[in-house]
Amino acid sequence: MSMADEKFEPGSMNGHRAVVLVSGGLDSATVLAMAKQAGFDVFALSFDYGQRHRFELEAAEKVCRSMGASRHVTLSLDLRAFGGSALTADIDVPKDRADDEMEAGIPITYVPARNTVFLSLALGWAESLDASDIFIGVNAVDYSGYPDCRTEFIQAFEQTANLATKSGVEGSAHWNIHTPLIELTKAEIIREGVALGVDFSLTHSCYDPDKTGRACGHCDSCILRRRGFESAGVPDPTPYVD
Amino acid sequence: MSMADEKFEPGSMNGHRAVVLVSGGLDSATVLAMAKQAGFDVFALSFDYGQRHRFELEAAEKVCRSMGASRHVTLSLDLRAFGGSALTADIDVPKDRADDEMEAGIPITYVPARNTVFLSLALGWAESLDASDIFIGVNAVDYSGYPDCRTEFIQAFEQTANLATKSGVEGSAHWNIHTPLIELTKAEIIREGVALGVDFSLTHSCYDPDKTGRACGHCDSCILRRRGFESAGVPDPTPYVD
Questions:
Q1: Which residues are recorded as binding Zn(2+) (chains A, B) (predicted)?
Q2: Domain with B80 in it: what CATH number?
């Protein structure tokens, strides 16, 4: 795990800026709460990348407003031009998969190089803000099939960031890519969020919601979310179709 | 220099796909010609990132068509949301700078993390194409002030790519980020392009063209281009305002 994942004392980062990647899901809402508690001035970044689950973007807006982000930018980035994922292309989202199926290899909902793209854009914004901290809610427990959710990847990206930027060249800063959730279970993330006052009813996880934004209850993301609340012993505020 | 920069025998990569970053300038047109000569099936990628010099994008389209790219995608990416560069924000492009000014530190035309962002998106597309080769026309001679034009940066990105992707995890591929121009002077690049039949009249370099697309003749990019043709002993086909 990166040195950047040390625990912060509350308020210890007052006066520092950080870019936080916010998807509208429960993981990134918890990360935003953690960055705020550390004292960071939070610049939240979301992406409209042609995802099927666009209710995420409305959720991201609500989460940022409710939790006091200083600024929230939603960048349009039409990854559908590339194809290759059930989240952006016209492929059915898998439903009611058993654990062994969810754990076997890389899911078809994988978006090629997504976290590399998101972190790169966060890096560009952070550099123009004179920030050197970026938060991302990757998780190696529930998303073990995604290569870009692993610590080795995050460390390599951090090293690239140090070489990619003006501050890297001038030696004035070292980039910190914070991944505070990387080793937590979904239940632990939910408990942490509850402790920090996150309103999870504002968040959205489903890959395949109905037209009103209700969660399907059966995609991998719904299954993990439901189980997480159950196992955390926290009431699940999500409206499920079924 | 990366191992990926070995010279290719003409046609030796027949049947392989590569993503080539094409800006519309003379460097990337030459890179595209080099990839084609090696035999790659070229998937060209350009960005509409809110740059002031949008004539580049028309130039990119013409270059790709004239040189036989299999596909050309121009991705919209509004980096103006982040601010921080004379190429995207409303700051005057510097003119008629002396050599020592051009060489001193990082120019204000630097776009934060631009090559990291562009390479990440190329990586996403390449992965969905089952390609493992990416070409970028970075140059450490004329752009020594840009951190993301250096070999160390490219090598770090390559390492990140190997950890970021499905093919990296499954161990089936090793990413090659090719930077065939990295140690060439502008005159050498022009001579190489001429040898490969590049029509430089289709390319555009100026940071601050007039309304009809004519080059200003005085920004850093025009100065380097003019001198390059002069020093290569090749007639400069560029229409300059002055």
A1: 206, 216, 219, 222
A2: 3.40.50.620
